[in-house]
């Protein structure tokens, strides 16, 4: 039996503690940039860069983003700053470096002969992240709305990964879900989920019928006119990444209740978010390593 | 066409504003104990007891409880206290008085020749209230748990109205739900819902497998031994009315995370809670009035 | 370790082969009235009444009904008729006899000092049987209707065990389900399931809106007037036991498509039906034997 | 108000009667190749090619396939054969011709200056057809399996449109669904639906665990080895178009129960299938006609 390959998890928030723990089911895992309090799992060995006995690592796992400034590791639990290039001597030649949003740091790893892989670009990652995102959206709706989701008319804009998950979950809770989508095949899919559907360019005609409007489209689809059509006490929830889908100035001027919800997976379900990162990396490695399946 | 019958909604919290609004679809509704801010609906006429032009009312709707002290109306939005008996002269002879938890006030109404009906005792009311209760429980779980409900093992104790609704909703969200119930037919019903089931007297053997344990049984079923079996970081959520189902002293001593959640409908979904009261009263009146259906 | 208790399964159709097999996980099981072809499971020992080496049995399991004529065992796979009283000498004193619809045979067993238990009367049995009944109804609807259940308006009469299961399954398949029930609490429960609801006495006003009408109420609720209101090409499915819920003469005269579906569990899912009988008997024995749980 | 545009529906089976009926909500619709018995809807005007008073048509709707031999219209209800080119003089210059699988007939229409559009190629069509296909598969499973789908372990191969719909519907009915898919993102999506997932290349290791195996992948994925691994009494259902996904010779030799199910929408739900064709054509025309939405 071969010795286990070694993985270094460096930096990141609470999620990465769980990422490390899941990876430790398959690999020998060390972590830098954490304290025992954040990462209380005995399966993972805590270390600091100055430790003598560190092994050379086969794989390096970095957070999202890898670095805020292109130089230092994004490591909120670390008091002493770590330079990204400090990590390179710890790795075996040709080691695989996994991270999300490398920015300029990618070039530094590549020039040291390392392979760089962005797990954020994997479809598995975005697919799985739709679950915590939709649950985070449901949490906000339950907190903000004075009525039950069961029986409430809700409009979901967009039917991509997040839109379809959110629509499905809301339907499962008994909400009366309408999906607005540009593409007729998306609208057909929404009807398969038990939702009604309308063309996206018709939302102003329908927007007044809903207790909540949830946007998942990364484009300014909730215009001033839409805002005027939405019931004054309806909740508007924007899940689209910046700049978001709501006309901010108009919403302010009209006094509409808008909740912007970004990065929900890490906020509402850090353990699951960390687990998703680990699963995605394991599957990326599996492909590289010739199809050995890691049962996680 | 006959003139509409008249209803007086007296006292209560935010919910009763919505109760009044729904009743106003069928009746002429007046309200005392509210301000226009709480009850901004033009369909309902605000009044105070000293107003001259008040009609005599066919029905009186009172809150839960009717009175805290057996003398004064439970009217949190009213600065001047109202005595329950002050309401009697406003009613027609033999008028129907609806309320929840009348206590000693029931006798006062009855001795004035009025009929007293407790809507809390109606099965419709408790059936419908399971929806906001389950949604409130889901909200707390989403807030408190670091993982998604999707994929999380959850134990629900009891399979009555609330337990079955909660188990169904959690299953719909993708949780792996196990139901513990004393009665074998309840366990069979839980399996129909897609849940696993265990006998209630076996929970100590299984309790260590769950990320959350939700109790709906109004009896001390989560004993010190059960608490010791539950994972230290699992959420324990008690939905059972006082004294609740958790051994409080043991939970304190063991440092377990317990959330007691009472009266969820009014807290998490006041509009729906008010609507449920209105629907229940309408159906009670419908029966009395010879089966005329009120489409609400 | 004690020797296993012994069970004799006597007579019945295909279902009882599977009942015997499930019981054989816990007991030593023998069967009479079967051939190896019907009961190909090596866990169960086939025997005939004239065999010498038969043990004395702790429990006897009989079919539904126990006997057609009150004298002979209901044993369709047996060419030689077996008299019910022939079974008595095979049993230990005080043995437990399980069956469904004993009729006059109950007295014969009791007078021999045996205990008689009707598993058909157990709530667990009827609860679990709602699953194969609803699936059988869905099968008929899929076979008979020219449109998908998804998107079709369907009326379900009654919201007891079968009505609620059927309504839930149809809703899960995307049908637009309306439930007609007499009791307002049942109508409220139907709404919790995502269905619309109407009072049973209003069905004639609504019956014209549906592609299928499924009755689960054991009373003549589909009268001539209702039949006239139902669309001519709608499917009418009657799941209520004889005499059924449809005015047969009127249906004939009007030429309406009515499917009477009785005893669906045994017809559509004999294995599951047999398993349900076994589980119910195991739970009945468990209670008698002091709460030892049989994991099946 | 402009006069309605005119549509000719020519040939096809029962489905096209319903297609014609749905189109008649928006257009003036005539049909050739039908009898009043097949097409009893007064909204559609039956005609024969020799009729004098026929208008010139804006649109022509043809069946799947348009022609079996490349010359004559596929018109099973027509006793006199119709040549495809006979239809051309009935159309306005530049009229739009809709059909499925035109084959060589496309060239004939195009050379007459007509536009040719294949509705089978529309994503909306294949998306919506997944519903009747999945319901047809469920019907077959209910008919063929001796156990309920509720609680039965079922393997679905593939997670495209049909695989995902089928898996979702089976899960909704309470089956324990495992999805085998090549792509890790598809496996992740299957888990979102509440299913387990395995890599497609591992099916031989798992195939023995299921009561039914349903293939939706158009490639020979159920090999002799897989067939040997599948339980002898399990149902094998192949929904993939010819040549199908099962090694036919091996299945014969092994005596396995395989059901090949092709063209399920037209067989199990002709009305819905016709409606889907109509909706798809309406949306294709809508785009052409500048986004006027046809509410159907």
Write the layout of secondary structure elements.
The structure is a homotetramer of 296-residue chains.
Chain A: E1 6-10, H1 14-23, E2 28-32, E3 45-47, E4 57-61, E5 91-99, H2 105-111, E6 115-118, H3 123-144, E7 153-157, H4 161-172, E8 176-181, H5 184-192, E9 196-199, H6 203-206, E10 212-215, H7 224-229, E11 235-238, H8 248-254, E12 258-260, H9 264-268, H10 270-288
Parallel strand pairs in A: 1-2, 1-4, 2-3, 4-5, 5-6, 7-8, 7-10, 8-9, 10-11, 11-12
Helix pairs in contact in A: 1-10, 3-4, 3-10
Give the number of helices of chain A: 10
Cα distance spanning the termini of chain A: 20 Å
Low-confidence stretches of chain A: 290-296
User: Strand-and-helix sequence of chain A, N→C?
Assistant: EHEEEEHEHEHEHEHEHEHEHH
Please name the fourth-level CATH homologous superfamily of the largest domain in chain A.
Answer: NAD(P)-binding Rossmann-like Domain
Task: Just name the CATH architecture of the largest domain in chain A.
Answer: 3-Layer(aba) Sandwich
Structural class of chain A: alpha/beta
The CATH topology of the largest domain in chain A is given as Rossmann fold
By oligomeric state, this entry counts as: homotetramer
Portion in beta strands of chain A: 15-25%
What's the number of structural domains of chain A?
2
Spatial sequence of strands, sheet with the most strands of chain A: 3-2-1-4-5-6
Largest interface: which pair? A-B, 26 and 26 residues
Q: What is the β-strand count of chain A?
A: 12
> How is the biggest beta sheet of chain A arranged?
6 strands, parallel
Tertiary shape of chain A:
elongated
Mean pLDDT of chain A: 93
């Amino acid at each position: 039996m071969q010795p286990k390959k070694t993985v270094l998890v460096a930096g990141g928030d609470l999620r990465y503690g769980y990422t490390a723990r899941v990876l430790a089911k398959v690999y020998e895992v060390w972590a830098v940039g954490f304290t025992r309090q954040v990462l209380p799992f005995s399966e993972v060995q805590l270390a600091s860069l100055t430790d003598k006995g560190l092994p050379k690592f086969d794989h390096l796992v970095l957070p999202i983003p890898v670095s805020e400034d292109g130089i230092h590791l994004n490591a909120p639990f670390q008091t002493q700053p770590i330079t990204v290039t400090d990590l390179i001597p710890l790795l075996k030649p040709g080691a695989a470096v996994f991270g999300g949003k490398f920015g300029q740091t990618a070039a530094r790893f590549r020039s040291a002969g390392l392979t760089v892989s962005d797990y954020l670009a994997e479809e598995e990652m975005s697919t799985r992240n739709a679950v915590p995102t939709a649950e985070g959206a449901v949490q906000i709706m339950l907190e903000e709305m004075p009525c039950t989701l069961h029986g409430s008319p809700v409009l979901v804009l967009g039917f991509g990964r997040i839109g379809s998950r959110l629509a499905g979950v809301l339907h499962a809770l008994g909400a009366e879900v309408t999906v607005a989508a540009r593409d007729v095949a998306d609208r057909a899919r929404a009807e398969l989920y038990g939702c009604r559907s309308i063309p996206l360019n018709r939302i102003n005609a329908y927007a007044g019928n809903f207790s909540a409007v949830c946007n998942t489209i990364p484009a300014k689809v909730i215009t001033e006119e839409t805002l005027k059509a939405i019931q004054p006490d309806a909740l508007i929830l924007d899940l689209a990444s910046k700049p978001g889908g709501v006309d901010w100035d108009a919403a302010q001027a009209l006094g509409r209740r808008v909740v912007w919800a970004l990065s929900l997976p890490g906020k509402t379900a850090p353990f699951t978010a960390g687990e998703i990162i680990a699963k995605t990396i394991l599957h990326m490695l599996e492909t590289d390593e010739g199809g050995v399946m890691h049962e996680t």
